[in-house]
User: Fold this.
Amino acid sequence: MRLLRLCTLMVYFLFASSLLANQTASTLRIKGAIGPAVADYIERGIHHAIEQDHKFVIISIDTPGGLDKAMRHIIKSILASPIPIVSYVSPQGARAASAGTYILYASHIAAMSPATNLGAATPVSMMGDSPRKSPLSPSTSTDNTQIAGSAMEKKVINDAIAYIKSLAILRNRNQEWAIQAVKEGVSLSSKEALDQGVITLIATDINDLLRQLNQRQCQVGDQLVTFNTDNLSVIPISPDFRTRFLEIITNPEVAYLLLLLGAYGLFFEFSNPGFILPGIIGSISLIVALYAIQLLPINYAGMSLMLLGLSLLITEGFVPSFGILGIGGTVAFVLGSIFFIDPSMGGTAIGWPVILGVSILNILFFMVIIRVTIKAFRQKVITGKQDLIGQNAEAISNIGPKGYVKVFGEAWKSQSNQSIKKGDKVKIKAVDGLTLTVEPADLPHLTKEDSS
Assistant:
């Protein structure tokens, strides 16, 4: 009987400990602009939490916004999650602007720290220029370009309004303010957001957040989930090497420079076959650049111009054209650089200093190629047997009367009516088949006319 009680007690403790072990949650962090690397990090973090049977995921947010493509990728991961996602704008002084607002609206629970804000959800390009005029404001210009731009901007605005409104309906949050945040770019403090039904709660820190979540319910799919934060362990998931590497290479300027490095590497390899190192560096750079580019909101016309430019640059290595192909490739590459990133998708354009720097580098490089090519064309042609007459050579064996000499890096049979030692300098008097007639260099030698 005692043994039976002991076994029952052990089973009870094992069962209780397993329950406690499962009471875990993950924390992810969005800090800075939202790009492909952040989207990949959030998606993999949510999948990891699901695989580890975590109860929910907390996404800490402090962002000025980011790429539309990356934001929608994150939101798709949140909407597809079978466990609750809690978005938490923290620490105090943080913000969830632009793309961050959409992510808050998509989350099952939206929380903010005191002294934080959200909003300014109007889609804008990250061009680094002066702010564009609102597409909804009146315009007196009749310029066709401006009219076309306004039409495109209105399409983007209306698409964003429909998107955030659908998220507000799904999570039963304030639709009117969401539309206003997109249309007019307005923002709210954390207290105002709570009062207007934009967020779920305000928490001073993570412990306060967990305390307020306890026994709170939320709808996840077709199930009503109740939070239980008693004895909960919170496990942070930090960005790994892959995320940090993606963050570097998906910077448009880095991807752009990698693409250029790949082109130069292949150019040098094709120009000097067998050197190997430029080909390896160029191939790796080109593959990494192309991988990064497919994650960015690119303009395909700009990409086509860049590929044309790269093709012309590489062709210059096969077909010397006094640099004409190189200059044409540079022009196409620069034009493609200007249109490379699609601003309507919130992309960060290539900076003018980078474009101008690359242009100057290409121009200088191909000026050197043109100069070397012209110099080579002006040099005396040294092919053909008759052109060997009068050239200097070096005896690579004793000649008396026969031996070998080296001319233009090649070994030739030679003959002479004088004794010549190995290493002596000689001049070529005549060519008979594959045999050169030579004499010591310090003696008068025959010219081509004399030999004929």
Q: What stands out?
A: The chain has three domains: 21-239, 251-378, 386-451. The domain at 21-239 is CATH 3.90.226.10 (2-enoyl-CoA Hydratase; Chain A, domain 1).
